[in-house]
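Person: Please comment on this record:
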Amino acid sequence: MTFDDICINENIKRRLTEAAEKGNVSHAYIFEGSACIDKETIALCFVKAILCEQQCGRGCDTCLTCIKLNHGNYEDLILIGADGNSIKDEAIENMQERLRNKPFGARNIVIMSDADTMTLRAQNRLLKTLEEPTPGTVMILLSENAENLTDTIRSRCILYRFSYEVNESDESMCLLAQQLSVLLLKGSPFYLLSQKVKPVTEDKGSALAFLDALETEYGRLLRESVTNVAGGVGNAVAGDAETVYSDESFAESPAALYRRHIFDAIAAVEEARRNLQRNMGVGYALKCMMLKIGG
């Protein structure tokens, strides 16, 4: 698989491709994105783009280097992941020891999954390598939340944020997110909400993709609420907000209440995402989210 085979943010793909083609590759990157985004594959495609013997900048999947990377036996590739719940100091120390050795090929490459789980001690040790990188070394840190990394590490890496992008096959997910947002705004019974989200409770990946779609939908509603404030907040969701927030006894305006509902909903979606990342049960995480949004 190469960059041509994966659907990622096109602007980021173009920038990474150009960097590989021109040899203008940094010593350290952070690829940030939710768990439903296959950051490992993106990182591997970038490595192929850097090292490919036939199609520099894209990767060919047929040269010896690309084949070795596909089979996981490329000599200069160092893979690091969490040991239990975190990446510990020992893993960084072992990586540094390997980086002291001259690569068999042109570069030593490090791909670190779950980089945001590094202990503080491990991050402080990694900082030494980022400050004085071995010539030719490329490190790619994969993270769901780069804010968990220290400022000093983030400042020494090029950060790319990969967002969930909707394609034709995801239209049903977007429609589901739109329908659920309306049901939650109306304060619909919980059994209706549970039935609505049942298709995305089968696995963690589907649930995370749905949360991304739901947060995108709330972002859209928030933008519309600002644009349509002169015409009444009901415009944002075909009159639902106006119906729910028409009580004269509210101290806040309907528009302000509606926007507060959206902000609270986005916070609940973010909390559900964190709960899933902590391996909370999918059904329970979504249930807690809907109860918080629905009030």
The radius of gyration is 23 Å.
